[in-house]
Amino acid sequence: MSFPDLTADLAARMPELRGRLLPNQMLAPLTWFRVGGPAQLLFTPADQEDLAYFLARLPAEVPVTVIGLGSNLIVRDGGVEGVVIRLARGFSDIVVEEGHRLRVGAAVPDVKLARAAADAGIAGLAFYRGIPGGMGGALRMNAGAHHGETRDRLVEARAVDRQGRAHVLSNADFGFSYRHSGAPADFIFTSALFQGEPGEPAEILAEMDRITQAREASQPIREKTGGSTFKNPPGHKAWQLVDAAGCRGLTRGGAQVSQMHCNFLINTGGATAAEIEGLGEEVRRRVKESSGVELDWEIKRIGMAAPAAAPTG
């Protein structure tokens, strides 16, 4: 499927735009699941100023969706209407500041932040080695692993809203909770400042190695997957509920519940987004039926289902 091309109209409205506009750009290659349809328009801003310029001039009726590294994401097969914004090179700086602090762009991968902190002798951020994704997503969902969460180390973050206005949010402004932040939904995070503590690089790197080994031993990280699928309900582990419901190894088309870690869905090859999402919904149904506990998605799902095929004959 393809959408009407918005580029000519937007280019006329934004003569000084420096970022890249691509109409009907397939999003599957940008996601870890490798599924999904096109973005009506994919915009990669040059920097924060370019992003603000774009948003301030974008017609209010055009929907905006933000994606990061695509690790915790299902793009539905019908694609995403409006503009999909993906931050890239202009948001990838890492700067070591005084007081054992790191300021990082929202496009920086979590693992790269952990490594930069280790190289600078900054402890307290090694847990990011175990989180697939980028810093923008970590801010939005209070990403955490291995006894650490984003809210534990965030000092402040910078963002641009749908009208192109810049904001600075303190940690308290986020209203963090488990895998959630209360920041306004239309804020696009552009950078963040993290507080660490003094540490020995060798010890920090050793901790990161332990995290890496633990992930490789227990998670299907070499598969086409989106990471943890469901949030842990209060008092429960999602994977245990999925396992107890008999869903380990369950399949739907090319989608499968991982045999290694059953809170992971994987694309075994050729799966559609509908098969992956449908499998997840079937898991939720079976868990609810067997335990009475309702699982909430941790993976973000965006876009529209593919149009139904026309009948033949």
Automatic annotation (TrEMBL):
<feature type="active site" description="Proton donor">
    <location>
        <position position="228"/>
    </location>
</feature>
<dbReference type="InterPro" id="IPR016169">
    <property type="entry name" value="FAD-bd_PCMH_sub2"/>
</dbReference>
<keyword id="KW-0131">Cell cycle</keyword>
<dbReference type="InterPro" id="IPR036318">
    <property type="entry name" value="FAD-bd_PCMH-like_sf"/>
</dbReference>
<dbReference type="Pfam" id="PF02873">
    <property type="entry name" value="MurB_C"/>
</dbReference>
<dbReference type="InterPro" id="IPR036635">
    <property type="entry name" value="MurB_C_sf"/>
</dbReference>
<keyword id="KW-0961">Cell wall biogenesis/degradation</keyword>
<keyword id="KW-0274">FAD</keyword>
<keyword id="KW-0560">Oxidoreductase</keyword>
<dbReference type="InterPro" id="IPR011601">
    <property type="entry name" value="MurB_C"/>
</dbReference>
<feature type="domain" description="FAD-binding PCMH-type">
    <location>
        <begin position="34"/>
        <end position="199"/>
    </location>
</feature>
<keyword id="KW-0133">Cell shape</keyword>
<comment type="function">
    <text>Cell wall formation.</text>
</comment>
<keyword id="KW-0285">Flavoprotein</keyword>
<feature type="region of interest" description="Disordered">
    <location>
        <begin position="216"/>
        <end position="235"/>
    </location>
</feature>
<keyword id="KW-0132">Cell division</keyword>
<comment type="similarity">
    <text>Belongs to the MurB family.</text>
</comment>
<keyword id="KW-0963">Cytoplasm</keyword>
<keyword id="KW-0573">Peptidoglycan synthesis</keyword>
<comment type="pathway">
    <text>Cell wall biogenesis; peptidoglycan biosynthesis.</text>
</comment>
<feature type="active site">
    <location>
        <position position="298"/>
    </location>
</feature>
<keyword id="KW-0521">NADP</keyword>
<dbReference type="InterPro" id="IPR003170">
    <property type="entry name" value="MurB"/>
</dbReference>
<dbReference type="Pfam" id="PF01565">
    <property type="entry name" value="FAD_binding_4"/>
</dbReference>
<protein>
    <recommendedName>
        <fullName>UDP-N-acetylenolpyruvoylglucosamine reductase</fullName>
        <ecNumber>1.3.1.98</ecNumber>
    </recommendedName>
</protein>
<dbReference type="InterPro" id="IPR006094">
    <property type="entry name" value="Oxid_FAD_bind_N"/>
</dbReference>
<dbReference type="InterPro" id="IPR016167">
    <property type="entry name" value="FAD-bd_PCMH_sub1"/>
</dbReference>
<dbReference type="InterPro" id="IPR016166">
    <property type="entry name" value="FAD-bd_PCMH"/>
</dbReference>
<dbReference type="GO" id="GO:0008762">
    <property type="term" value="F:UDP-N-acetylmuramate dehydrogenase activity"/>
</dbReference>
<feature type="active site">
    <location>
        <position position="179"/>
    </location>
</feature>
